[in-house]
Each structure stands twice: as C-alpha cells, then as structure tokens.
C-alpha cells in the first residue's frame, strides 16, 4: 500500500515513510491509494473479537509490504490494551473511548503511533511535534514519555484547556517539552505546520507529527468504528449510524474511511459547537475557515480543521463531501442542557464534547432514530469537572490513571504565537 499527498505534488510513499514524515513535502496530507474491502468473515463474525484483533485485521492491507507489516499485530496488541465498551442507554449506544491512560479517545491513535515509531526510528533521534486543544497533547505525551530517542514538543493554548487537561499536558518533564502558547488552537496548529514547512529544520530536528495530520493517528481510529459497527449489525441486522463530536475532523474522517472499506456504517452526523466553518459548509456554504470561537467544548474549538482537506479529497467535490455526512451545530446553552439532563435522562454524566453529540442525536427525526445509533464519547467527564459538576450537582469520580497524573508537578514554557520562537526551541543544540 502506498500513500500520496492530497495536493498531488509529492511522490507516493509507504506507510512507514508517511508516518515518519507527518506532513507531505508539498504541504499536503497523506492519504491511502485505496480503501481495501474489510474482511468481515471468520473471527470478525464473532461477538468476542477484541479491538486489537479487529485493528490488526482491518489495518493489515494498509501496511501490506511495509516495514511495519511484521510488527503490526504486536503494535495493535501493545497499543489497544484498554476497553472501549459499547454501553446501552435509552435510545442509543455510547461508545466509551475514555478508558485509556489519559481518559480520552486520543489514547488510541497516540499509543499506536508511539509503538509504531519506536520500532521504525531504529535509534534515529526524532522530535514529535504536536498542537493540542486539550486531549491530543496529553495522550501523545503519555504514549511517548520515556521512550529512548523520541522527544515530544506539545503546543497548547493558554487559558483554552481545562485545568485537569493542562495537568496532563505538563506533568511529564524528561523527554516531553510543553509549550503554553499565548494564542488559540489555530495559532498552535499554524506554528506546527510552519515548522514542518521548513525543510532544513524538519531534517535536522527529525520532525514528525502526532496530530491528526499524521496517517499513524487516523488509521488505528478506524478500528473502533469497525468493531462497534460490526457488533451492532450482528445484533440488529442494521448498519448503525454514528454521531461524532467534531473539531479537527480526524475522528470523523476515520469513521468515513472505515465506511469506505465496506464496514456496516450508516449515516454519520458531525456534532460541532459554535465554531461555524464545518456547519456552514455542510449547510451548503463555501468552505471558509474562521477565527476560533471559545466554547464549553474546548477540544472542538477549531476554526480551520486540518482534515477538511482529506474529506474534500476523499469525496472529490464539495457537493459529494456533503453527501458523506451531515453536521449539527450546538451552542453552549444546549451543551449545558445536555450535561444537566444526562444523569436523570440517561444515567450518565457527559463531558461537554459528548454532550454536544447527545444533543445532536436528540435532534434527529423519529424516522431517523429507528435505526441503531452510536454516540461517540470522546473524554471522561472528570476532565471537565469545572463545567460538569456544577451542572449535575454532584462530583464526578476521578479515573485512577487521571488521579495519578494530577498529583505530579507541572513543567511548561510560556511562548508567544510566533513560529520563530518555536524553531529556536526545536533547533538541535549539539
């Protein structure tokens, strides 16, 4: 399997090269040359298939002939060693993706990428550069912490992440450098892209990415959609729909890619917050990135999602992209209502991002809701206790892994939104 740039100005490369590079040389994003039809026979037909086995089966053709092919099963088993339960509530299922080390769905892709790069780097020093709106950076830092030859540099926006998210971003030290940027997530993402655009810096610092621009993040995220979709189809005979909290669109794109592999995935709804570009586009408007708007669902505060480029490439046109999914915009007032009503209506406390998706599901018509639906729960509500607990009137117990991280001291460097400062910090000193 080869991977090529969305912009068509770079040579096709194998998966390992695409993962190590992060961004294609022409500034585009790597995409697979094809979407192989998923094997849904054998163990795939069994209800007890593990997520790790499902990922190995699904991803095998994506790594055919690749340097990582022989290690794929080991990488999947090492990375996907925590549960992703599919929980039934009144009217839909909840795919809980927050049972990993940092209590967010980003653990799936980050742990896969770390396990893969540890094997591919072969002693060559690498710097993993990542911008985060909250959860990505914590997951990447946790996945790469202590790995020899791999340095992590995390950029996050000051005042735009929860206190507990910031604790996860800054508790590592050692091979993890956390940069608190005086700006928003789009500034962080821009700085990362501009650093990658510097060919000499990319070479000397051994830059690679762990944002969802990295193919190594997106490919494993397809697996939990495949796992959940097959499970529900076996149970109901109907391809389920998915409602996905959407920010940088990586998680949503992984679901669409899985559907293009022939997985039984029905309608896909992108639940967005008050940041307007995605919602406006799917309502028929032009694609127009906007400055980020701050909301309760901070991890979704993205005004220029990177993976829109991959979505438009996948579909081939704006009209075709709008047929791939629909978008529902949810403002802060409705997010609050969904959080407030969660315990009584569903027996669940939702994080603000999951609450956004729950409200989007509630807005579906009666006929639409006749099929099985999955709401994707992207983070544990305890990561947003300052929002969630006052609304539900009760404390949210901390997951043990998160409790441990919160007890550690914080280490970070304050920087402005100028890429020049980032480049100075990335430049080799020896």
Structural class of the secondary elements?
alpha/beta
Supply the number of helical segments. Answer: 18
**Mean pLDDT over the full residue set:** 92
Q: Quote the CATH topology of the domain at 86-101 and 216-402.
A: Rossmann fold
The best one-word shape is globular
CATH A-level architecture of the domain at 86-101 and 216-402: 3-Layer(aba) Sandwich
How many DSSP-defined strands?
14
Q: What is the CA-atom radius of gyration, in angstroms?
A: 20 Å
Q: What's the end-to-end separation, in Å?
A: 37 Å
Low-confidence region ranges: none
Beta percentage is: 5-15%
Percentage of residues assigned to helices: 40-55%
Strand order of the largest sheet: 4-5-13-10-11-12
Major sheet: size, sense and barrel closure? 6 strands, mixed
CATH class of the domain at 86-101 and 216-402: Alpha Beta
């Amino acid at each position: 399997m080869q991977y090529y740039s969305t912009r068509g100005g770079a040579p096709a490369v194998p998966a390992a090269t695409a993962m190590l590079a992060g961004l294609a040389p022409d500034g585009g994003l790597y995409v697979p040359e094809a979407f192989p039809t998923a094997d849904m026979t054998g163990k795939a037909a069994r209800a007890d298939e593990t997520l790790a086995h499902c990922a190995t089966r699904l991803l095998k053709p994506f790594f055919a002939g690749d340097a990582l092919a022989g290690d794929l099963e080991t990488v999947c088993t090492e990375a996907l060693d925590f549960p992703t339960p599919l929980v039934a509530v009144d009217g839909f299922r909840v795919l809980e993706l927050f049972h990993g080390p940092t209590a967010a769905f980003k653990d799936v892709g980050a742990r896969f990428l770390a396990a893969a790069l540890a094997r591919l780097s072969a002693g060559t020093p690498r710097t993993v550069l990542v911008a985060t709106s909250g959860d990505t950076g914590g997951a990447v830092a946790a996945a790469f912490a202590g790995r020899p030859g791999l340095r992590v540099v995390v950029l996050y926006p000051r005042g735009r992440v929860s206190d507990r998210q910031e604790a996860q971003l800054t508790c590592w030290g050692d091979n993890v450098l956390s940069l608190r940027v005086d700006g928003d997530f789009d500034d962080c993402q821009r700085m990362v892209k501009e650093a990658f655009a510097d060919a000499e810096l990319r070479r000397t610092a051994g830059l690679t990415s762990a944002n969802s621009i990295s193919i190594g993040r997106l490919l494993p995220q397809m697996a939990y959609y495949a796992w959940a979709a097959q499970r529900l189809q076996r149970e109901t005979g109907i391809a389920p729909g998915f409602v996905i909290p959407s920010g940088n669109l990586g998680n949503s794109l992984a679901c669409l890619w899985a559907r293009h592999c022939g997985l039984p995935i029905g309608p896909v709804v992108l639940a967005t917050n008050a940041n307007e570009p995605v919602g406006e586009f799917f309502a028929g408007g032009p694609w127009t990135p906007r400055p980020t708007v701050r909301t309760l669902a901070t991890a979704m505060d993205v005004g220029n999602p990177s993976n829109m480029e991959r979505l438009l490439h996948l579909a081939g046109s704006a009209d075709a992209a709008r047929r791939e999914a629909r978008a529902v915009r949810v403002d802060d007032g409705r997010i609050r209502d969904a959080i407030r009503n969660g315990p009584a209506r569903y027996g669940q406390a939702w994080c603000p991002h999951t609450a956004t998706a729950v409200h989007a599901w509630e807005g579906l018509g009666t006929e639409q809701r006749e099929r099985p639906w999955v709401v994707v729960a992207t983070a544990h509500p305890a990561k947003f206790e300052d929002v969630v607990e006052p609304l539900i009137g009760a404390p949210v117990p901390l997951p043990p892994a998160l409790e441990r991280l919160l007890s550690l001291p914080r280490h970070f460097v304050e920087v402005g939104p100028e890429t020049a400062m980032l480049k100075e910090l990335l430049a080799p000193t020896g």
